[in-house]
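Quick entry between incubations.
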Amino acid sequence: MAEPYSSFSSRVIPLPAENVDTDQIVPARFLKVTDKAGLGDALFRDWRFEADGSLKNPAFVLDKPEMAGRQILLAGDNFGCGSSREHAPWALVAWGVRAVITTSCADIFRGNALKNGLLPINVSPERLTQLFEMSAADPDIELTIDLESQVVHLPGDEDLPFDVDPFAKLMLLRGTDELGYLLGKADAIDAWEAARPARVDTRIGT
Amino acid sequence: MDAAAAPRTLVDKIWDDHVVAQAKDAPSVLAVDLHLVHEVTSPQAFTGLRRRGLPVRHPERTVATADHSVPTTPRNLPILDAMAAAQVDQLTANCAEFGIPLHGLGSPSQGIVHVIGPQLGLTQPGMTIVCGDSHTSTHGAFGALAFGIGTSEVEMVLATQCLLQRRPKTYEVRVDGRLAPGVSAKDVILNLLSRIGVAGGTGHVFEYRGSAIEALSMEQRMTICNMSIEGGARAGLIAPDETTFSYLAGRTHAPTGAAWDAAVERWRTLPTDDGATFDKTISIDATALEPMITYGTNPGMGLPISANVPDPEATADGPGRRAIEQALGYMDLRPGEPILGQKVDVVFVGSCTNGRISDLRLAAAALDGRKVAAGVRMLVVPGSDEVKREAEREGLDAIFRAAGADWREAGCSMCIAMNGDQLTPGQYAVSTSNRNFEGRQGKGGRTFLASPLTAVASAIAGVIADPRRLPGIEALGAVGGR
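Done. Structure below.
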């Protein structure tokens, strides 16, 4: 379904906030859509725009002209906490983000991100501080993310290794999705279900 | 001792019972017993099924309702928001096309998905339950492994009735002692969150245990499990016991006769074995708890209600201090001020956290014969149509109306502010819901999360008020029910 996740280089978008929740990433009033497209404008909506729709002044980091086209978000701890809305990674990807480097992502967000070609990369708190400092000193530093070898190449030939779930890595590199894999388990699912009665029948009483 | 005989936790037992397949290096294929669906996180999943030409594997293990974007104005009025109307219509069409039972708008069993599951007896011990909604953790109160999923996963469960999951770590939350009058389940969970923060449970499932948990009614247990996700844990469970069984008995989907006896026998084997170990543990002394309230912009930013707004300067320089500074800036609160006495514009009683009949009984008992303060708007939104009817049978609506509160139809309402029930910029709300994120209850709105009793005390006072000072508070502990 998706494109295989290839290695890429990009400058970074620094967002030094902790516990960025999915209500900030996509406010709930944008959840009335029935498709996935077009959420790029909803991304961080209330941090970017005034009530009248004009950009905040000073502009939120995403709207600074030099951020256009950047694909790596550098964010504080526990990125993506709160609601399970997959609209959050949809919006990030629609804007162009392909990786979030932080110390940890919330569990549901991490799972959602990986299913949408958005790679969460966890680094140590010290390393995250260093990356923010590097980006403050030189806003144009470029990182290269190599999922195949699980490293972020930093300027000056330094390599920062990262962990990734081996299964999620395989899915990303192949550009296949988990549903395809699950459908391939139909025989196992049939056998498991045949041995166990259903716990409920939801049709009763409707 | 072989692995099968090793002592296991409640989570381990449910997990082991639902692993369909396990390949090396891959996540487990985990069977789902019950899939709850609502209008906001499902449309794209149904589109995905159509694109692949797939049916819903088990429509009879799937159930839908419309709750998030539905108005709470009288049901004979149309949905004015065209996008919300289209989303609700889409859910109806999807359920019809794929054969999924729907408790839709206008049905007597409509309501917030996490209220109607337990109410219908669909939520049962030992099950795996998922929904495209992070507050699915609510159902853990029955000793079910219940967690929120994204829309891609909704599509997977629709297609295969399974998910790919890694086994979570376990986190024991021990709560012993006895809650004082005016202190409730909501205060227990807000206290936990204030201690561990909003990422404290990441990668883990909470198991709430101890004498204070055992003493809680099912609805109070649901309040606690509901907010597990606010601590970063996808799920939070409580072992099933006599309280659980007596709540379930006789409900529409509960087993009957010999099947009931067999089910109870099975459910009795679920509690964590003596000697089982958890990856993490925390203890809370229930006896020492005060009513809690949040001051900031995430649910971990909570305080005992007699405390003062924290001073960022007293926190070590770093992200923690910046977060408090930013939160106080958004909330327009000054460090060191008492939280008691802060201005309140709106009081919201409702949501999947505190919108059940026992919550409304307690709120009504505290409000009976009193008035909502001038200038305060109070909304009471029942968690389901059934809760609404029961409240009306008991005359609770009359108490709320007489006090000057707005009595509305069922839905998520001002918890997520998708349906027009929202704060205006700058307004302060004391809310019984679960999230105080910036703009959560309306762009620019400011939220203090608290219990129904604290909400009512604040509605009467017109400012944040201590529910322990409500007249007759000692007697209110007995109000509520199962």
